[in-house]
Amino acid sequence: MRSFRFIIPVLLGAASLASELFAAQPSPAMKKPFGLVIHGGAGVVLRENIPPELEAQYRSKLTEARDAGYTILEQGGSAMDAVIAAITIMEDSPLFNAGKGAVLNADGICELDASVMDGRTQAAGAVAGVRRIQNPITLARAVMEKSEHVMLAGEGAERFAQERGFAFVENTYFQTPRRRADLERARQLEVARSGAGKKSAALTAPSANRTLAPDNSDSVVTTTDDAAFDRQNRYGTVGCAALDQQGNLAAGTSTGGRTNKKFGRIGDAPIIGAGTYANNATCAVSATGWGEFFIRTAVAHDISAQMEYRGTPLADAAKATLAKVAKLGGDGGVVCIDKDGNIALPFNTAGMYRGYRVSSGEVGVEIFKE
């Protein structure tokens, strides 16, 4: 009897341990969340200024970029790979102010900026003022992975690209009739406001609200409101923030900057902590908006910091940060995803090109403030 009294508790204990171990094994339903959010710029995005056929083009390209990134995540790929895939598609599209279709600076040249950040390692890479790199986001990743630096600019960035075997394109590859028309109008407004050439500027300004065919036409959707036109030309950045099945976060941002920019101007897109930030402990963020204000408020890092130091939920943190931007006089938007798969895509402009898809089932592409 003693032996049985000894064996029974042992068997019960073993059964209990086995039950606990079994319960601890993740079931398919307990898989870690994953997903991504993207943007194609915030700004004066009004329904009445975008014809249905153009809206369809934007929705199609945003969907393509979103799904390309999500497919990588769904197949177990990294958040960084997903970010690069989504942004590359938008850089290759003339619809957005990044890569092909980027705005022109005061000299009529496209100067491109981009950055990436890995939330797992806190590694980051950025390039600024490059003129001959077809996909600046891939060069930003190379700076992160293949150099000891975080940011390279201008000729130095392109020299690094050459050493790493990047192919170069002519600057005309990026330029489109739409962006040349934008630059011409911006120049005319600048002359008019300086007190000279007001009559000629008024006579030669582009007509408002013409239909846009951005890849092969000289027509342009614009606005008769000069102030709105100025604000419109500050936006158009593209970006992505992603969470993979391993629980790693990443973010990236790419832009052509603002129309008629001068003197080597650089906005927030390549600035780690302003336009891009990722931290596995909190969230990943990509921003778009009036870059000078986003730099001054360190937008992307500020959202993460609120979550880390105060335990603020993602959506509340993003909203609070944009309120700081607005208080200073700036505007724009952010796309964010946190370590638990929650997403936030707030903006305080008329609209923002945006998309999202997460493993919980949330999926969409939106443009206007709905």
CATH topology of the largest domain: Glutamine Phosphoribosylpyrophosphate, subunit 1, domain 1
- What structural class do helix, strand and pairing data support? alpha+beta
**Outline:** globular
Query: Which homologous superfamily in CATH is the superfamily of the largest domain?
Result: (Glycosyl)asparaginase
- N-to-C span: 76 Å
Tally of separate domains? 2
Mean pLDDT: 86
Q: Helix fraction?
A: 25-40%
Q: Please tally the β strands and state the result.
A: 12
Q: pLDDT below 50 for ≥5 consecutive residues: which ranges?
A: 1-12, 17-29, 196-223
Q: Give the percentage of residues in beta strands.
A: 15-25%
Lateral arrangement of strands in the main beta sheet: 4-3-2-6-5-1-11-12
Please tally the helical runs, counting DSSP H or I stretches of 4 or more residues.
11
The largest sheet is:
8 strands, mixed
CATH architecture classification of the largest domain: 4-Layer Sandwich
CATH secondary-structure class of the largest domain = Alpha Beta
